[in-house]
Amino acid sequence: MRKAMYDAELGDDVYGEDPTVNKLQDLAAEITGKEAALLVSSGTMGNLVSLLTLTNRGEEIILGDQCHVYAWEGAGVPIFGGVSLSVIKNKSDGTLDLNDIKNAINPTDDHKPSTSVVSIENTQNQCSGSPISEKYLMALKDLCNVNKLKIHMDGARLFNASVYLNVEASALTQHIDSVTFCLSKGLSCPIGSIICGSQDFILKAKRWRKSIGGGMRQAGVFAAAGIIGLKKMTKRLGEDHQNANQLAHGLADIDGISIDPEIVKTNIVRFSTLNNNTSKFYETLKSNGVLVNPSNSSLRMVTHYGITSDDIDLTLAAVSKTLREI
Questions:
Q1: What digits encode the pLDDT tens for the residues 25-72?
Q2: Could you tell me the domains of the chain?
Q3: I want to staple 126 with a disulfide (CB 3.0 to 4.6 A). Which of 66, 139, 202, 296 is the partner?
């Protein structure tokens, strides 16, 4: 990947003249079954640009209370787009109940913002990396078609979902209007995300990307890594899932840890300590050589290219040691 970055043929992507960026975008569009694609610097930018493109000021987006767009992206959509967020509860499997969506759609009433988009996440990070199935997406599309709504997918870990469900990525994106996926997570690139959609959508998205400062010049350096990620790294994501499964079942065998290993489907493992002393556990585990991402009530571990089965064994030993120390 680093050699590809070093050897990348470059141009000015602001003018659409970087051949490596163009190659990456064409490849991404082909893989997702969309007409066109656009390179952006991050998943947050990808979601923001996509939702600004799909909406108009004064409209409303329906999305889940556990989704990244709502919880972890600095309220970018309402700040920059003047768009309201109608937040409904995610189910434990990461989906949004279709009846909840239906009930959240605003009627034609001047007192209410017009509902225009439903935004979903696949896999659903805060629901233990749950993959969203094609069957659900088909049902969601039927509901949105009836109500003339667009669908955006935050597919940060889209390929984890497709690998777990044993379907092509395009099977999960054919039912939605726009999708963002990350190059810098399981695909192991240093930077970047991709937006995919129709030609008209991408033309408008490119203007929004420029407006929020996202145009890059010789971006082929990053795009070269993305090409390697899409061609080679998607094929090994199942290894991450196996390691996450090993980690989850190992944690379940440790006294003092609360986790249901059966909910771990992809590469995200969420658990808690029975004494609920998350901050002390986090700090002590860090001193024992393992970094974990803490939140108010749980901790998150994510498997990736840099983590092996042996690393899982070391982590489990460190967790046991930490619990004895606290």
A1: 999 999 999 999 999 999 999 999 999 999 999 999 999 999 999 999
A2: 2-235 (3.40.640.10), 236-325 (3.90.1150.10)
A3: 66
